Amino acid sequence: MTKIAIRVVLLSMPLIVLLIALPFQPSISVYSGDTDFDAVRAMKLLEEITSKYKYRVVGSESSKRIVRWIADYFRGLGLETYIQSFYAPGFGRKRVLAHNVYAIKRGYESRYIILIAHHDIVPYTIEGANDNGAGLAILLELARVFANRSTRLSIIFLASDAEETGLHGAKYFADNFPQISRVVAAISIDMCAWKGSEEVSLMAFMGCRNPFVVCDGGVLYVIKSLERLGYRVRVARANIVSRVGLVMGGTDSMPFVDYGISSVGIVDYDYPYWHKLEDTIDKISVEKLEIVGTLVERTVLTIDSMGDIPRIGAHFIFLDGYVVTTVFTYLMYISTYSPMILFLYEARDILFQRRRLRSSLSSFLVLLLIMAVILLLSISLMISFGKAFEILVAAVGTAIVLNIVYGRSFRIEDWQSFKLVAATFMALAYSVGFVNPIVALIVLTPSFYLVCLAKPIDRRLTRFLLSIAYPCIAFVTELLFIAVGISIWGPKILSYNIAWALRMLMAYLPNILALVVFYSLTLAAVVSASVHVLRYRMRGDHH
SS in 3 state form for 120-151? Predict the structure, then answer.
């Protein structure tokens, strides 16, 4: 086997592991029998919700009236019905009284599947037909479907409040339900009945209190498996960024993630009338209510027949109809160290030359300090002013200027020793994958590979083009995240949401410190490779 072939195999190890993983899919038998969900009934419920309970903002009179109506509906089905009252932030500056309504359908076992739909809306809409009148109508119809059906597991139907001000109703329920440890799965039905959508979108979000807490994706896998019955189910684009703690939206399944419960949101963030006056009942179709309603019914019956959900682990990756389970995700993560191993082998002659490494180390630490200062200052400004893009552009511009000045004034004795220091620090940043391999694979792998593979370029034009393209390739995940965010929210809202997410991280000091540390290390390593390695000339010019 030639050296080139060995090099190609080593660098392709993550792809090889991925190809091996795809045939190993969890075994599951989905419920394929008849369903009782009646979409016409659901549409009539939606008509009543949108006509009689407009402006049902948390704390409003309309909100109080719909709570009583939901409770009467559940009681009319013979279900155990409870109202939870609690104080939550309103849309003004004061806190308001909010109300959850939930009903329990008892099964043979005291283990639970929770179905959730919030009943509140934002004040700048009127009907809230899709967000979330339709979800509530589906929940109420599912309560009728299961009220008199024998099941192994118990089912909780939760109509939550104060979702629009921060998922407070679902949080309150999760924090106060005495048997939360016996919940098998939580499914949020939220903004998913738009007639213009051809698919059902699934969101497996991170935790609510700690954005780096994730849960087993078993319930998501169950729903995705129902595609074999003809449903069109999409693991939504935001899933990728949500698995690394970057998504700035949420749904009521998230508070249950904090308790280690397999949770999923059925929610379509591509809905064009989200939080707008145009979110009216004419945007909803009986056909889409039928699709979502029967899909959730089959999901519940599939889980009930198994008595539990299949375990695929918390660190999963969905690729179309396939899932890469946590075991293979970790194997992919470990295999991505192959370019570092390859470089260490090729640079083995300088591993113990302390003088050369000492000089490169001191230079890299200066660069690392510059990156950390810029990053900390940028985060502080984003949090203070709530504007991310303008500050981000300014930070990138500052970093470019400083690196040009630094790169021109800095001389290196040899590129291998400097690259060894940069790659070693990059490997330290990459070690975050032991906690969350998805972060490493999706966010850091491009940077890690490019730092380890970068070499001096003699041709001036090639060197120039690569030095421009290199940072774009290294941070392709972040660029894609921004592109997806703009397509969903627009630049203004995304800018605010990034600042909000950073403010949220500040409540968890270890997380914000980890963010600063590994991004500072990554930035310094990438700059080292692009400025000091790609631009380094092998013919004696050390600039």
Answer: CCCCCCCCCHHHHHHHHHHHHHHHHHHHCCCC
Which residues 6+ apart lie within 8 Å of 138 measured at CB?
A: 42, 117, 189, 193, 289, 292, 293, 296
Mean pLDDT lowest among 86-95, 387-396, 491-500: 387-396
Each domain of the chain, given as residue ranges in start order, spans 27-311, 336-533
If 0-12 CB within 10 Å is exposed, 13-18 middle and 19+ buried, where does residue 468 land? Answer: exposed
- 188 φ, ψ (degrees, to nearest 5): -95, 130
Look up residue 535 and give its amino acid.
Answer: R
Query: The tokens 């060197």 sit on which residue?
Result: 463
pLDDT tens digits, 98-129: 999 999 999 999 999 999 999 999 998 999 99
Question: Nearest-CA neighbor of 115 among 62, 74, 61, 66?
Answer: 74
The tokens describing 314, both together, are: 């918390």
Picking from 142, 83, 116, 85, the residue whose alpha carbon sits closest to that of residue 290 is 142
> What is the model's pTM?
0.84
Measured CA angle at 355 (ends 352, 357), to 5 deg? 65
Q: How far apart are alpha carbons 248 and 510 in whole angstroms?
A: 20
Mean per-residue pLDDT, 333-349: 87
**Strand-by-strand arrangement of the 95-105 sheet:** 80-89, 95-105, 154-160, 112-118, 183-189, 262-266, 200-203, 233-235
Could you tell me which residue, 491 or 65, shows the higher pLDDT? 65
The owner of tokens 């599947």 is 113
- The reply to whether omega before 132 is within 30° of 0 (cis) is yes
d(CA 277, CA 125): 4
Nearest to 417 by CA among 356, 462, 366, 475: 356
Residues 268 and 197: beta-carbon distance below 8 Å: yes
| Fold (CATH) for 27-311 | Aminopeptidase (3.40.630)
263 bridge partner residues:
186
When pLDDT is cut at 50, 70 and 90, the band that residue 405 belongs to is low
532: tokens are: 């000091």
pLDDT at 474 over 90: no
22-25 contact pairs (CB < 8 A, 24+): 22/319, 22/322, 22/324, 24/325, 24/328, 25/322, 25/323
Identify which of 267, 289, 282 has the alpha carbon closest to the alpha carbon of residue 42.
289
Three-class SS of 497-510: HHHHHHHHHCCCHH
